[in-house]
């Protein structure tokens, strides 16, 4: 009886290990982003709170700066598409994001409401 129980526990452990391994490989390879080849691409973003983020999205030839909070997404600014993200400002530093945003907002043409 203990041999059958040991075999069942070993099989269960193997299946769980395969599930975690598959999930890890899926996340490392791009996961859903590789499957979702749509018109919207995330250029960069930063966390500004525990549940709030500011993202830069690329849609066609336009960059949209959006604020994302629990249950809502708000457009903050629209920019023409840039050649590349700024080299000197890493996207993951929350302290540097306001300077980056101000630099691109000042370069963008004024939009009428």
* Secondary-structure element string: HHEEEEH
Binned, the helix content reads 25-40%
Largest β-sheet summary: 4 strands, antiparallel
Shape: elongated
| DSSP summary, beta strand count | 4
User: For this entry, what is the oligomeric state of its chains?
Assistant: single chain
Number of domains: 2
Query: For the CA atoms, what is the radius of gyration?
Result: 22 Å
Global structural class: alpha+beta
- Which regions are unreliable across 5 or more consecutive residues at pLDDT < 50? none
Q: Quickly count the helices.
A: 3
Q: Quote the beta fraction.
A: 25-35%
Q: Round the mean pLDDT to the nearest integer and report it.
A: 79
Distance between the termini: 76 Å
Strand order of the main beta sheet, please? 1-2-3-4
Outline the structure in words.
The structure is a single chain. By secondary structure, the chain is of the alpha+beta class. The chain has two domains: 1-37; 38-107. The chain contains three helices and four strands. The model has no long low-confidence stretch (mean pLDDT 79).
Q: Which structural traits does this protein have?
A:
alpha+beta; 4-stranded antiparallel sheet; elongated; 113 residues
SSE blueprint:
Layout: H1 2-28, H2 32-35, E1 40-47, E2 53-59, E3 62-69, E4 72-80, H3 97-107
Short description:
The chain has helices at 2-28, 32-35, 97-107, and strands spanning 40-47, 53-59, 62-69, 72-80. It is of the alpha+beta class.
């Amino acid at each position: 009886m203990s041999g059958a129980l040991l075999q069942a526990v070993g099989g269960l452990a193997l299946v769980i290990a395969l599930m975690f391994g598959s999930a890890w490989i899926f996340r490392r390879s791009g996961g859903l982003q590789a499957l979702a080849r749509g018109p919207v691409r995330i250029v960069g973003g930063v966390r500004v709170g525990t549940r709030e983020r500011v993202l830069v999205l690329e849609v066609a030839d336009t960059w949209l700066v959006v604020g994302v909070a629990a249950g809502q997404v708000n457009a903050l600014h629209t920019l023409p598409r840039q050649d590349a993200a700024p080299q000197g400002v890493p996207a993951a530093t929350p302290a540097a994001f306001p300077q980056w945003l101000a630099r691109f907002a000042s370069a963008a043409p004024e939009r009428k409401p």
